[in-house]
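Data availability (excerpt). The following record was deposited with the supplementary files.
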Amino acid sequence: MNGVITTLIIILSLILAFYWAPIVGIAFDGSLDLAQPLRMSDNSVNTGYVTGYAADLGKIGNTDISISHPDAQNMGAVSFRISLNSYHAFFRNDISIDIDKITVIFVSPYGSETLLQKTGHPLTNPGWTVTKKESFLPIEYADQDTILEPYESFEILVYPSKPLPPMSQFLILIQLPDKYKIFLSRSVPATISPVMYLDYKIL
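Predicted structure:
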């Protein structure tokens, strides 16, 4: 009897870790970052933590950037984090997103452009790439593939063709493989600095 109970506990623990990993992460760490995937949404994924970077940086995080014309007075790149919506995954049985199959469109005063994914280094603009993969669980590491799973968070770096001047508005449209769309609308700060936290409302 004890063996049956132990087996049931193990099975329930695995289900909890797979589908509700963000809850476990919050229990361990209490970070608002880990709470991000708990938001209810019709979309398969949640996005946030949008950050801008000056157009003269040769390296962003661990990603080398190839810059032909450095420009410290304008914003060159934007990053954001993306994670799977755990509620959507549980109720719709949609448990992963192939990041290689998303479409990223950048809209600015210069027009609209569909950015291609870049996997080589250094990153050349225009394009986008996955720069960081993290797990919500302290005991679990993110896979090295580009399949986004419920317990993972990816950071995506977007680099359009032209740097944006202060106060200009831009929009990042992410077309998901399941045909859902996510819109990130932001404005470039009035003062350009190497790293800029664009904490406006997510549409």
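Summary of structural features: The longest helix spans residues 2-19.
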